[in-house]
UniProtKB/TrEMBL annotation:
Synthesizes alpha-1,4-glucan chains using ADP-glucose. It comes from Salinarimonas ramus. It catalyses: [(1->4)-alpha-D-glucosyl](n) + ADP-alpha-D-glucose = [(1->4)-alpha-D-glucosyl](n+1) + ADP + H(+). Keywords: Glycogen biosynthesis, Glycosyltransferase, Transferase. Residues 330-471 form the Glycosyl transferase family domain. One of its GO terms (molecular function) is alpha-1,4-glucan glucosyltransferase (UDP-glucose donor) activity. This is Glycogen synthase. Transmembrane segments: none annotated. Residues 41-275 form the Starch synthase catalytic domain. Signal peptide: none annotated. The keyword Glycoprotein does not apply. One of its GO terms (biological process) is glycogen biosynthetic process. Residues 1-29 are annotated as: Disordered.
Length: 510
């Protein structure tokens, strides 16, 4: 972005820069209402946030949880200054300059306020973040080679804010870190002698942020930290392990996943450390919620809004989905797949199950993007079954919402699923999830009541659950009963907020 170097020059000079589309340095570095000081102050550190930039479910949580905490917690968010954020928010005020640290470059710290009043700090470093692509990689999906420096910069910025580098009068009582890109913040705080407790939430243990130990000097990681009880993981520097080792408490996004990650099967090599955290009562599972926009009575994206028992609205959305995907009209069940097209999500199982679904009169619509082999196999599946299977490689929010609203069942055969949000979106829109009994799927789906669960990630087990779903569809009254149960189960953030408040108190905050 052409304006970024000028912005950074202004930040370094400490002078305002005029003209539209410019970041202005503010002499008034933000005011904190007096009542905000009476509640715990939490810095929520994240690599992504819906409304700014999103790659997955973490983005949804990062947008919703700090907002849901308001009132009980004074939460502010810290996120890297990606190209999308700078382009959409030229009003960002630069409130501080943060120093370089070894080979991690200096940066500016910006501040913006969302329309609903949430304060978001933005790490302004064009050389690290002003790029086309996702938060983690380029447009081909290849990880950025300097991701260690990019996210070390994020962690160091969190520690500087903990020192008081943000708005005057506001210093966090706790850092709430999220996934591997934030893990070094807990370690830097300890190495730098910054006495602020931290909690790290694991959204997906499979992604750990592994780098060569040759990068340690550039990142300012002490040699003595490269040990089993520190940042070392099978000869690599692990950002996630740094967070697990140095944070005061570890959370993850469902109670079942908290148990699963202490096992060799799903512990991704960190099960020993996580078992220790569980024994120390420093590991807690807290299931995510979904926000109030997931309401079929008011969602503006739907073909026709609908309420409990008003199934004609659901049928109107089904007709629109069938038309959009080129399917024939009919009275059979409509199945949806709305997911990243990767092995973890069991996409191969969904492809294999499709033949049975079509043979039973069902239709399938798929949207998502992921591994090339699955994209190709899904396109081939649609060609084999014209009018019965529709595939859109990509993702568009409005279309996905209509698919939840129009489908009868959501296929979710994930091999593991830390929490999952899709099953809750589906339930809110009266689409019954058919899912592997794992992680958050086990915690949010009541088998035979609000959806269907199967115990092993195998095709026979999956097909058995699909046949049970088809039986419910044909029964009619049972389908409607299950829809009502799914739509009325609690899915908001209140329970999650209470869980995090309890964790914060456990580490001495609040």
């Amino acid at each position: 972005m052409s304006t970024v170097p000028a912005r950074m020059a202004a930040a370094k000079a400490g002078e305002p820069e005029g003209g539209p589309g410019r970041v202005r340095v503010s002499a008034e570095r933000g005011r904190v209402p007096a009542k905000a000081r009476a509640v715990p102050r939490v810095l929520f550190v994240t690599p992504e946030m819906t409304g700014f930039v999103k790659a997955g479910g973490l983005g949804e949580v990062s947008a919703a949880l700090p907002r849901a905490m308001r009132g009980a917690i004074d939460a502010r968010v810290l996120i890297p200054g990606y190209r999308e954020i700078l382009a959409a928010h030229p009003e960002i005020r630069v409130v501080a300059r943060l120093p370089a640290h070894r080979g991690v470059p200096a940066c500016a710290l910006g501040e913006l306020v969302t329309p609903d009043g949430l304060i978001v700090y933005v790490v302004l470093s064009p050389e690290l973040y002003d790029r086309e692509g996702s938060p983690y990689g380029d447009e081909t999906g290849t990880d950025w080679r300097d991701n260690d420096v990019r996210f070390a910069r994020l962690g160091l910025a969190a520690v500087e804010i903990a020192r008081g580098a943000g708005a005057p009068g506001w210093r966090p009582d706790l850092m709430h870190l999220n996934d591997w890109p934030t893990g070094l913040a807990a370690a830097y705080a300890q190495w730098e002698g910054v006495r602020v407790p931290s909690v790290i939430t694991i959204h997906n243990l499979a992604y750990q942020g592994l780098f060569s130990p040759a990068r340690m000097e550039r990142l300012g990681v002490p040699k003595e930290a490269f040990v089993l009880d520190g940042v070392e993981f099978h000869g690599k520097l692990s950002f996630l392990k740094a967070g697990l080792s140095y944070a005061d408490h570890v959370t993850t996004v469902s109670a079942t996943y908290a148990r699963e990650i202490t096992t060799p099967e799903l512990g991704c090599g960190l099960d020993g450390l996580l078992r220790l955290r569980a024994e120390q009562r420093r590991l807690t599972g807290i299931v995510n919620g979904i926000d109030a926009s997931w309401d079929p009575q008011s969602d503006p994206h739907l073909e026709r809004p609908f309420a409990l028992n008003a199934w004609e609205g659901k049928e109107a959305n089904a007709a629109a989905v069938r038309a959009a995907f080129g399917l024939s009209s009919g009275g059979g069940p409509l199945f949806a797949v709305i997911a990243r097209l990767v092995h973890q999500k069991g996409i191969d199982l969904a492809i294999d199950a499709a033949e049975t679904i079509v043979a039973e009169g069902g239709q399938i619509v798929v949207t998502g993007r992921g591994e090339g082999r699955f994209e190709s196999e899904l396109r081939a599946l649609a060609r084999r079954h014209p009018g019965m299977v529709g595939v859109d490689i990509g993702f568009e929010e409005a279309q996905a919402r209509r698919m939840y609203a129009g489908s009868d069942f959501l296929l979710m055969p994930s091999r593991f699923e830390p929490c999952g949000l899709s099953q809750m979106y589906a339930q809110a829109f009266a689409s019954l999830p058919i899912a592997h009994r794992t992680g958050g799927l086990a915690d949010t789906i009541d088998d035979g009541v609000t959806g269907f669960l199967f115990d092993r990630p195998s095709l026979p087990a999956f097909l058995d659950a699909i046949r049970r779903a088809l039986d419910a569809f044909r029964a009619g009254s049972r389908l409607h009963s299950m829809r009502r149960a799914a739509m009325t189960r609690p899915m908001g953030w209140d329970g999650s907020v209470r869980g995090y408040e309890g964790v914060y108190r456990r580490v001495g905050v609040g």
